[in-house]
Design brief:
Number of helices: 11
Strand content: 15-25%
GO molecular function: carboxypeptidase activity
CATH architecture of the largest domain: 3-Layer(aba) Sandwich
Number of domains: 2
Structural class: alpha/beta
Pfam families: M20_dimer, Peptidase_M20
Protein name: Glutamate carboxypeptidase
Order of helices and strands: HHHEEEHEEHEHEEEEHEEHEHEHEEEH
Number of strands: 17
CATH superfamily of the largest domain: Zn peptidases
Strand order of the largest sheet: 1-2-6-3-7-15
EC number: 3.4.17.11
Distance between the termini: 28 Å
Organism: Kitasatospora paracochleata
Shape: elongated
Largest sheet: 6 strands, mixed
């Protein structure tokens, strides 16, 4: 016969805060160690050194760890995907949930950056490459699981911590692994750090990238220009029409970011190329804008030219849904118990949370500590707020680990 469940108050943010405070020194030591490792997306050896340290810590607190080596991307290897698991005492029939905590090990920085800008603490702020994006968040997730297990938390079906090696380049190698794991989860909390003002992230835009190739007909521009079909002119009309899509649908932006055309001034341009990005806060908006790109490309206003459209990639949005709002309400209540007013924000940036949400999993992001200036030499993390943020994360996980009414687990609230 299993032991009775501990009272919910044992896993409130105030109850968990002392445990988080006791582990702050360990958190900072781990953070200094991880930031000292160059782990750019194209540095698989460095990413795997980060994975080695995370694996040792996760095994040490009782999680089973699997390392998955994804296929190379365009011939370039990436680091391993790390997946850590622990089962609770509940099943789905008991109302237990499978909870995914997700972060990434790679940074945007080149090898040598860690030596040039080593980890340092100035007052209550830590600096260094990846300190906020996303090593501080990954360690917050690990520490939150650790304090929950120390507190005796068992009322859940499964807790999974996922750490990916290539998020900063769009997760091309790890995406199949992330989507496969997400498909088995009930809810997800992503570990990107909170916004600079402390807000969580309730929505992320999806993105679709297109290459438009305009084909015309070359001719001598001085002797017989009438025999030509100017692809550059057709592309110019397309640029205007594509940019005019902005404002047509709420939450949708279209940007023509690259335009290339022609080789010489005395040749009627035979070919042009456009690179176009569409971002949208909903799947419907992304689909509508993508269809509009195809429609505009199919109707050239310059006789003798035609345009082909190639969709290069698509990442689904992390939509602001009722389920995500319920998760946010749980986190906000936990934060309020510590006197923290927790806001929610939407962003145009994409991350692994998009892929998880795209698999149909209710997802909330920004559960790491407060940080900012990501991807820059000024990147920072507020270490004074780390214990409270970890306690809020842990309390949110504990509350979401089990449905409190009805029967069955799953993604319903």
């Amino acid at each position: 016969m299993s032991a009775p469940a501990r009272p919910a108050a044992a896993f409130s943010a105030p109850a968990l805060l002392p445990l988080a405070e006791n582990l702050t020194d360990r958190y900072l030591a781990d953070l200094a160690e991880l930031v000292a490792i160059d782990s750019g997306s194209h540095s698989p050896a460095g990413v795997n050194r980060v994975a080695d340290r995370l694996e040792a810590r996760l095994r040490g607190i009782g999680l089973a760890v699997e390392r998955i080596r994804p296929d190379p991307v365009h011939g370039r290897p990436v680091g391993d995907v790390l997946v850590a698991r622990r089962s609770g005492r509940l099943t789905a029939a008991d109302g237990g949930r499978r909870i995914l905590l997700a972060g990434h090990m790679d940074t945007v920085f080149e090898d040598g950056t860690a030596a040039l800008r080593p980890f340092r603490i100035d007052g209550t702020t830590a600096h260094g490459p990846g300190v906020s994006d996303d090593k501080g968040g990954l360690l917050a997730g690990l520490t939150a699981v650790e304090i929950l297990l120390r507190a005796g938390w068992e009322d859940y079906a499964e807790i999974v911590l996922l750490a990916t090696p290539d998020e900063e380049i769009g997760s091309p190698a790890s995406r199949p692994v992330t989507e496969r794991i997400a498909a088995t989860m009930d809810i997800a909390l992503a570990l990107e750090c909170a916004r600079e003002n402390g807000d969580l992230v309730i929505g992320r835009k999806g993105v679709a990238d297109f290459e438009l190739t305009v084909t015309g007909r070359a001719a001598h521009s001085g002797i017989e220009p009438e025999r030509g079909a100017n692809a550059a002119l057709a592309a110019a009309y397309l640029v205007v029409d594509l940019q005019d899509l902005n404002g047509r649908w709420d939450g949708v932006t279209v940007n023509v970011g690259v335009v290339r055309a022609g080789t010489r001034a005395n040749i009627v341009c035979p070919e042009a190329e456009l690179w176009v990005e569409v971002r949208a806060s909903t799947t419907e908006g992304l689909n509508l804008a993508a269809q509009a790109v195809h429609t505009l490309a199919a109707h050239s206003v310059v006789s003798g030219t035609r345009t082909t459209v190639t969709e290069l990639s698509r990442c689904p949005p992390m939509e602001d849904t009722p389920a995500a709002r319920t998760m946010y309400s749980v986190a906000r209540t936990a934060a309020a118990e510590l006197g923290i007013d927790l806001g929610a924000a939407a962003t145009g940036g994409v991350g692994d949370a998009n892929l998880i949400a795209g698999a149909g999993v209710p997802t909330l992001d920004g559960l790491g500590p407060v940080g900012g200036a990501d991807h820059s030499p000024e990147e920072w993390l507020d270490i004074s707020g780390v214990p409270a943020r970890i306690a809020v994360l842990a309390a949110t996980v504990a509350r979401l680990g089990r449905r409190l009414s009805g029967t069955g687990g799953g993604r319903s609230f």
